[in-house]
Design brief:
Layout: E1 2-6, H1 11-22, E2 26-31, H2 39-48, E3 53-56, H3 62-71, E4 76-79, H4 86-91, H5 93-113, E5 118-124, H6 148-166, E6 171-177, E7 179-181, H7 200-208, E8 215-218, E9 230-231, E10 233-235, H8 236-250, E11 256-261, E12 267-268, H9 269-280, E13 286-289, E14 298-299, H10 304-310, H11 318-331
Parallel strand pairs: 1-2, 1-4, 2-3, 4-5, 5-6, 6-11, 7-10, 8-13, 9-14
Antiparallel strand pairs: 9-12
The chain binds uridine-diphosphate-N-acetylglucosamine (UD1).
């Protein structure tokens, strides 16, 4: 089966390609390297011993999408291509909406033309806004997003929902990712944010390796186990495997499905810092800072639906997430 991966060289795209290739799928990749590097392709070949067919370009370029679909027999599309910086999205909302929403409209148009109607879309737990309870289940209320990045994901979810309602021969799966962290255990690929990372795990890794002097822990007065924010960290390879499970279970279906992808377990900032220190035998300098605007106390998934319907289960522990994140940063200094 041939799977088109948009955002192929990005963090989640690249790890998913490894899982797909290891499970016998053929992959066609598309990326414009807006937040990744071309050498990821060599790295993927190094890990898997396989070469992928790759197109460099932008999903806003409809002619390019048309060319890809005319040159390949594509069975399934996984759309990872998007901008993902919460901060940038606030200062450049229009760029975010064009890149994250218009690109999907182009993709759908071309998929429709070639009668390819199987799509997995990368959404995010951010669509739940301020959740009223945890663990979050898929039928909980969405909306109340606090930034254009989150709103762009919400809009695309709605567009795909409307699309399915208009034509139920589509096969659409929305994955709402919680907090993907870690790296491929080889340390060859991982998360390589541009500049100073906004997310916790890459920030910890940079403090651990001396690239940044100090971690600020945003708030220790939340109503949580130790006062620091609680999130559902999920190993990137577990997340990648969910896509393989979804294709296996859903490839001949005509359904609209939504799944949370998390572990179902919350971990606090301090717990993550302590675990990182212990498994990697490093010291993380930190200080307690004021709460970050827009943050919530606790956010973790119920992942039961994906487990039950996709036959997927997370395997990696918080210890392994910290170990693999550190291994990657040390090897890619
Ligand atoms: C953030 C985004 C979310 C996005 C997700 C991707 C916001 C408000 N939300 O979620 O839209 O989908 O990343 O993974 O930005 N923390 C610190 N110090 C730091 C960085 C983070 O204490 O330097 C804390 C935060 O306050 C939070 C936890 O670590 O409690 C996790 O933060 P982060 O990795 O940014 O993820 P989210 O806030 O869950």
């Amino acid at each position: 089966m041939n799977v088109l991966i948009t955002g192929a060289t990005g963090y989640i795209g690249s790890h998913t390609i490894v899982s797909l290739l290891e499970n016998g799928y053929e992959v066609i990749g598309l990326d414009n390297f807006s937040n990744s590097k071309g050498n990821v392709l060599d790295k993927l070949e190094k890990i898997t011993g396989k070469k992928i067919k790759f197109y460099q370009g932008n999903m806003l370029n409809e002619d390019l999408l048309d060319k890809i679909f005319s040159e390949n027999k594509i069975d399934f599309v996984i759309d990872f291509a998007a901008y993902k910086s919460v901060g940038d999205s606030v200062s450049k909302p229009i760029e975010y909406y064009i890149n994250n929403v218009s690109s999907v409209l182009n993709l759908i148009k071309v998929m429709k033309k070639y009668n390819i109607k199987s799509l997995i879309f990368s959404s995010s737990a951010t669509v739940y806004g301020m959740p009223s309870k945890v663990p979050i289940i898929e039928t909980d209320k969405v909306g109340g997003t606090t930034n254009p990045y989150g709103t762009s994901k919400l809009f695309v979810e709605k567009i795909l929902d409307d699309l399915y309602k208009s034509d139920n021969t589509w096969n659409i799966c929305l994955f709402r990712y919680f907090n993907p962290v870690g790296a491929h255990p080889s340390g060859i690929i991982g998360e390589m944010p541009n500049g100073v990372p906004a997310n916790l795990m890459p920030y910890i890794s940079m403090v651990a390796t001396g690239k940044l002097p100090l971690l600020q822990i945003f708030g220790n007065d939340y109503d949580t186990i130790d006062g620091t924010g609680v999130r559902d960290y999920i190993h990137i390879m577990d997340l990648a495997d969910a896509h393989v499970c979804a294709i296996e279970k859903l490839h001949n279906k005509q359904e609209f499905n939504i799944y949370n992808l998390g572990t179902g377990k919350g971990t606090s900032v301090l717990e993550l810092v302590k675990t990182y220190e212990k498994v990697n035998k490093v010291k993380i300098n930190y200080k307690i800072a004021p709460r970050r605007t827009g943050d919530i106390a606790s956010c973790y998934a119920s992942a039961k639906k994906a487990e039950k319907e996709l036959g997927w289960k997370t395997k990696y522990t918080i210890e392994e997430m910290c170990k693999d994140a550190h291994n990657f940063i040390v090897k890619n200094d």
